[in-house]
């Protein structure tokens, strides 16, 4: 069986270093915040090019903390409307609701599966947009930057799937006002548990998020805001520091595999969203679209290939968001019916890649 993503293959190369870092932590006892978190924050800021990185508990909290920080500065107010892509993972939208803001969903471009600049243009009543670099493809270009600047719309990146992506407008995490990162184990940069970060060039937002992630305390035992405990774990920070060294190389492997798929998959039943191999898409997922999704998934399974569906149920069909997202989303619904993620594990062998290509090409509905 070719597994969808082999986390053993991804993490084993670091095992000795992970154990050394654990050993070091036991001796040094800096379990919460402190030196290890600060070191990773510095490295993550350098890597993304942003002036500040703040380590937090996970990607959902990263988005929530960004929104809360902007509420404290007055840039956002409760009830403000925030544009989100209708086809995103639900974790983009839950923090918007949790922060007392109103999510407004718009359909993606069927070629890129990302929000088109036009969608921002068409919404005249929004205060912010969450640009989701879905599946690893940058959702921010010069046009998006221009509209947001011109209309004074906050541009928040959901970069949870786009570690290391870089395009003409810049690098993920350094494109908008603030960016949310997740280091969930399966992401392009994944911890051995939950983790997240915010990157921003806004010193005040970075300062506020550092306070909010730590009970809203400006100094110990003095809570200025109703913050929460949303800190990045020190051990995860140490693990991430080790794995960061190989992020670019692993992304290159993903891109090479994606190119191979795009150049060799030729089944008339299968569409590949606009392929790009210039680093502006880091192929967190390699997705294809087909009217015969379930049959193809079944057929690949019989060939010993595990695939996944990202995502089976769109946000506007989720009970948690009933009453929050209004409108019809036919493009999003079609994507959710037709989409299938092929394995794009950076360590897939050439032979495994060939087997996947051949099995997709052999498929007949
Ligand atoms: C993973 C993910 C999140 C949430 O990150 P967590 O760390 O799991 O909370 C948010 N948005 C997108 C697009 C994601 O893929």
Strands, total number: 13
Which small molecules are bound?
pyridoxal-5'-phosphate
Query: What are the low-pLDDT stretches, counting only 5+ consecutive residues below 50?
Result: none
- CATH architecture field of the largest domain: 3-Layer(aba) Sandwich
CATH superfamily of the largest domain: Type I PLP-dependent aspartate aminotransferase-like (Major domain)
- The rough form would be described as globular
Give the ordered list of helices and strands: HHHEHEHEHEHEEEEEHEEHHEHHEH
Distance between the termini: 22 Å
Write out key terms for the chains shown.
365 residues, alpha/beta, Aspartate Aminotransferase, domain 2, Aspartate Aminotransferase, domain 1, seven-stranded mixed beta sheet, two-stranded antiparallel sheet, 13 helices, 14% strand, globular, binds pyridoxal-5'-phosphate
């Amino acid at each position: 069986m070719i597994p969808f993503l082999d986390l053993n293959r991804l993490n084993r190369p670091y095992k000795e270093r992970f154990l050394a870092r654990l050993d070091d932590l036991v001796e040094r006892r800096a379990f919460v915040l402190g030196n290890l978190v600060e070191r990773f924050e510095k490295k993550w800021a350098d890597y993304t090019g942003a002036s500040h990185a703040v380590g937090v508990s996970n990607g959902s909290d990263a988005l929530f903390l960004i929104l809360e920080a902007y509420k404290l500065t007055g840039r956002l107010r409760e009830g403000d409307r925030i544009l989100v892509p209708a086809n995103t993972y639900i974790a983009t939208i839950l923090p918007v609701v949790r922060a007392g803001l109103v999510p407004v969903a718009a359909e993606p471009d069927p070629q890129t599966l990302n929000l088109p600049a036009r969608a921002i243009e068409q919404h005249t009543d929004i205060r912010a947009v969450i640009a989701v670099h879905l599946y690893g493809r940058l959702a921010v270009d010069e046009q998006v930057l221009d509209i947001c600047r011109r209309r004074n719309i906050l541009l928040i990146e959901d970069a949870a799937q786009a570690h290391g992506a870089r395009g003409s407008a810049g690098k993920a995490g350094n494109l908008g006002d603030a960016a949310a990162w997740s280091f969930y184990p399966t992401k392009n940069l994944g911890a051995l548990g939950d983790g997240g970060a915010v990157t921003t060039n806004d010193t005040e937002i970075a300062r506020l998020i550092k306070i909010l992630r730590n009970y809203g305390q400006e100094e110990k035992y003095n809570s200025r805001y109703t913050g929460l405990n949303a800190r990045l774990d020190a051990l995860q920070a140490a693990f991430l520091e080790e794995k960061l060294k190989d992020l670019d190389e692993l992304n290159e492997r993903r891109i090479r595999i994606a190119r191979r798929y795009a150049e060799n998959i030729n089944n008339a039943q299968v569409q590949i969203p606009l392929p790009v191999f210039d680093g502006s898409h880091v192929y967190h997922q390699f997705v294809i679209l087909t009217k015969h999704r379930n049959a193809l998934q079944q057929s690949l399974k019989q060939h010993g290939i595990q695939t996944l569906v990202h995502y089976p149920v769109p946000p506007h069909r989720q009970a948690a968001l009933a009453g929050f997202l209004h409108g019809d989303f036919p493009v999003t619904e079609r994507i959710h019916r037709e989409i299938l993620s092929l394995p794009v594990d950076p360590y897939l062998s050439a032979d495994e890649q060939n087997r996947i290509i051949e099995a997709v090409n052999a498929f007949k509905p």
